[in-house]
Each structure stands twice: as C-alpha cells, then as structure tokens.
Write a structure and sequence with these properties.
The chain is an alpha/beta fold. About 30% of the residues lie in helices and about 30% in strands. A hairpin with a 2-residue loop joins β8 and β9. It starts with 6 loop residues before the first strand and ends with a helix.
C-alpha cells in the first residue's frame, strides 16, 4: 500500500525499553517511507503533535503523572490512527476489543504488531474512511480501566491477578515480586513506581518504605515504637521507614 507522503509515527511510552522494542520491530515490518519519533511523557508527546502531522500513534495506556487517555483528551483533533499498548489491565483489553480498537499487550508479539500496523496503514491510505472514533469512547474506556487487575507473564501464559487479592509487592533490583493473600508469588519486570501509580486511587494500598507496598486489608499487626514493624497475615514482616511512619500510621487508622 502506497501513501502520498512519509508516514509520521509517534511512540509514546515512559519506558525506554518499550519504545526501543517497538522502534526495532517496526523497522522490520514497515515497507513504506516512514519516520519514527519517540516521547517518554504526555508533555513531550504534545510538543511532537505541535511540530509534526502524526499519522500513526503507538500509545502506552499506563504512564506516571498523566496516562495515555490524558494525552488524547488534550488533543484538539484526533485525525490519526492509534494503536494502544498495555502491559496489564484485563478490563482495558475488553474495552478495546468491544469498541473495535487496536491494542497490543506487552511484551509485544511480532504477529500482532504486524496485523495492527497493516490495518492502520490501510485506513490511512483510504481517505474515504473516517478516523477511529476515539474521542467519544474516552470516558467509557477510562472508566473501564479503573477496574484493577494485573497481568503477569508466566512462561507461555498470561495470568490475571485480582488487585484485591494482592497482599504485598516487593521491589528487588529491576523487578518486583507480587505476593497474594494465598501466598502465591509472581515475578514481573515492572518497577515499584509503576505499581504505586497504578494503585494510587485504592486507599488500602500503602507504600511503607523504598521497596514495599502493602495491602492494608492483609495487615495482621504493627508495632507503635521504633523500629515500626508491620506483620502481614501471610507471615511476612516489614519495617516502616522513619520518614514514612507518621503518614503510614495515619493511612492505617483510616482503613
């Protein structure tokens, strides 16, 4: 399929690794003139939109500070094709499918990327087709994605964990370990900051130190003096950092 001008592609993802993978895969799949620009935040992406006429947007749904939906809400006109990218959130996936929107689940599979790109290029080349009706769908999409689940890749499967069943999350180097109320353990390459942002609207999730987020519903007890130790119903115990003690105790008293 030929386009009359170079296809301007924008990849918006706060993770450099995510942008890099997409950039590399696209180089092997696209056989028409194109140019790729990357942005690591909504603010940077808005600048790109002011400078270039984007034809195809790859948009990470979950990003700190402002998410992918926040970007779309700030654009005066959505006259480009959008392929959503999500690392987790089962409800988001259902929402995209229901509304016939293209999405990719991280880690991105080449076959799925190829399918989505070909479909987008066909729509761009066909001037008679209206752009995706994303603007009208934003409220419902954002509401659905507030339903919290986490998708974890385990060998050749994707396991969905109900956030309500997570007991605590522990950071270790460049990955996190999720422990459920049933003492199940899952490893994910996501960093703790991602989970802190993702869970920020759920009051019973509390970050107690640099490396641990706990679910207040599964706390068995905590000590009042220093060191302030939290004991979980799973049997694990963690120390609340001195800097966070007053804030954590205040949050626990509100549960």
């Amino acid at each position: 399929m030929k386009l009359k001008e170079t296809l301007e592609i924008l990849i918006v993802d706060d993770e450099a690794a995510g942008r890099g993978v997409l950039h590399k895969l696209l180089a092997d799949l696209i056989n028409i003139p194109y140019n790729i620009t990357e942005a690591n935040s909504v603010i940077n992406a808005l600048t790109v939109f002011k400078e270039k006429r984007i034809g195809l947007l790859f948009l990470d749904v979950q990003m700190p500070e402002q998410n992918g939906f926040d970007l779309l809400k700030q654009l005066p006109l959505i006259d480009f094709e959008t392929i959503f990218v999500t690392g987790y959130d089962q409800y988001a996936i259902h929402a995209f499918r229901f509304n016939a929107l293209d999405y990719l689940l991280k880690p991105v599979e080449i076959a799925e990327l190829d399918r989505a790109v070909k479909k987008a290029i066909l729509r761009i080349a066909d001037k008679n087709k209206e752009p995706q009706n994303i603007s009208g769908l934003l409220p419902s999409l954002q509401e659905l994605t507030l339903e919290k689940k986490v998708a974890i890749h385990v060998n050749d499967k994707v396991v969905f964990i109900d956030v309500a069943n997570i007991s605590h999350i522990i950071a270790s180097d460049n990955y996190c370990e999720i422990i459920t109320r049933y003492k199940e353990r899952y490893i994910t390459p996501r960093v703790l900051k991602e989970f802190e942002f993702y869970l920020q609207k759920i009051p019973f999730f509390i970050r107690i130190n640099r490396s641990v987020i706990v679910n207040g519903n599964f706390i068995h007890s905590y000590s009042k003096d220093f060191p302030c130790i939290i004991e979980m119903k799973t049997g694990s115990s963690f120390e609340i950092s001195r800097r966070k003690k007053a804030e954590v105790i205040r949050q626990l008293e509100l549960l």
